[in-house]
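Narrative progress, year one. The postdoctoral researcher (J.K.) led the effort to move from monomer predictions toward full complexes, under supervision of the PI. The following entry was the first complex the group processed end to end, covering 308 residues in total.
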Amino acid sequence: MRDELDRIISEQDEIMPSSGFVSSVMEAVRQESAAPKPIPFPWMRALPVFAALGLVLTMVIAGLVQVTRMPATAAQTWTLPPVVASAVHALAQANAGWIAFALLLTLLSTVFSIRLAGGKR
Amino acid sequence: MSAIEDLADVERVLAGDISAFEGIVRRRQGPLINMAYRFCNDRGRAEEMTQEAFLRAYRALASWRKDAAFSTWLFAVAANLYRSELKRMPAQNVALEDIAELMDTRSYHADFETEERDRAIRRAVMALPPKYRDAMILYYFHEMDVPAASKSLGVPEGTVKARFFRGREILRSKLPQLLEGPRLREA
């Protein structure tokens, strides 16, 4: 049942939009549609480097696990398996680590800017 | 009729005719501005928030799935924006305790004008914790229609009812004058 509290809150003053409101909204809409679309992150181009980054990380983790499982004396004379060593060497030659690091930074800054821009909307 | 016009305009906008969006703005500006006004109690800010709501709706137009009325979707987009805007920049509110004090010191029973009292109660709604405030604002904006308020708020109807009744309880406990005044006694 409707009581006095309902009446008071329901009967709030109605306001009318100002005369230029529609044109102001349409101006903003036109600006929005004319604005260039944001440049998307180049996922396809970055994919091989992300794969390389994943591989490097996997190898580092695998290496660390291997080291922790080794007895102390064996760990002192431990070397990388030949396949892993050659892969690491090839990646080091191509500066894959730096490229992956740079891409990771780019990704993080892109995500951060998108979040900032999204928060303002 | 409006729903058919909305659908036709949305389809034209999605097909690339931006000017068709004007029809939507003309039909929906009144309700959206009044909804914003209930959230912020400031005419200028209500217009700014409404413009932003229309822009957001324009950007997200393709995501309207047509399983609900366009107006329902638009109100939900707008309510979501208004709530986050208030979180970002709260409206100039007075604390509930201060409103209660104000009503006490003005000798409510004798000469506290009805209009002023009503205004104080509306300000008290604005001073409620956000989840109760939002439920109350949308419930009354939708003319006490719980399903409509629930769709705008994006929560189940039971949640809207619970929040609404809790909001009223808080108002009654903070403003006991509500129950004392003859015009505000429960029916």
